[in-house]
Write a sequence for this structure.
């Protein structure tokens, strides 16, 4: 095959890869096939992680870190409050960024919802340690927010999570 035809085919395959017309591993296979294993050196620039991947990893890390710090360590009240505020604000910023850019990625939205749940429950436990009704109210408000978010953006996982959370909460209160 001559170089002109090979270049046209590889450009078309790269377009398919960027437009996600074919799965990425298919495009990589075809590119390796047509270039005989020698891709362009600038192809590494295209393989950098996108903003979405970075936000996903950051939110999963934040969720893991918040669970680890709040439930498996003994931190001072001041440090827990500061971390709660930081985790809550950063998860809200990430969620609003995702919604503003119309990137309804469930990993980021669900992890930020869980970080906000953990943050509000931890705040309720710190501010009102002997009042279990506050935790019920906080959990119910979070579940209602999940239902509202699911209804507004048509996200089934938020609707199911909200209903399941309210059912578990009602069972926990009355049983």
């Amino acid at each position: 095959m001559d170089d002109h035809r090979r270049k046209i085919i590889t450009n078309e395959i790269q377009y398919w890869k960027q437009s996600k017309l074919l799965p990425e591993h298919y495009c990589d296979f075809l590119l390796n096939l047509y270039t005989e294993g020698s891709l362009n050196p600038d192809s590494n620039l295209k393989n950098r992680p996108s903003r979405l991947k970075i936000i996903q990893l950051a939110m999963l890390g934040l969720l893991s870190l918040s669970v680890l710090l709040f439930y498996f360590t003994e931190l001072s009240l001041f440090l827990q409050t500061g971390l709660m505020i930081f985790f809550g604000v950063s998860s809200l910023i990430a969620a609003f960024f995702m919604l503003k850019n119309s990137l309804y990625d469930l990993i980021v939205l669900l992890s930020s919802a869980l970080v906000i749940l953990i943050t509000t429950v931890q705040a309720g436990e710190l501010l009102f340690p002997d009042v279990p009704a506050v935790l019920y109210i906080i959990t119910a408000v979070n579940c209602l927010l999940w239902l509202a978010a699911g209804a507004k953006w048509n996200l089934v996982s938020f609707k199911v999570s909200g209903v399941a959370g309210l059912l578990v909460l009602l069972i926990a209160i009355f049983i």
Notes: The mean pLDDT is 83. The CA atoms of residues 58 and 108 lie 9 Å apart.
